Amino acid sequence: MGILLTIFNGVRLFVSTLWDLQEMRFSNIFNDVSSVAATIIMAAVSCVLAARRL
Fold this sequence. Notes:
This protein is mainly α. It has one helix and no strands.
């Protein structure tokens, strides 16, 4: 019974580590997309404001 518990804990740790790595990957992708979106919006607002001054 002890060996099964050890195997189960090892598999649980492996799955938990993979899950955490996936979460970090998706978090990084979301941060990158948010940054690009904010840059595009700021550039668009800047262009609109510059066009209104002309």
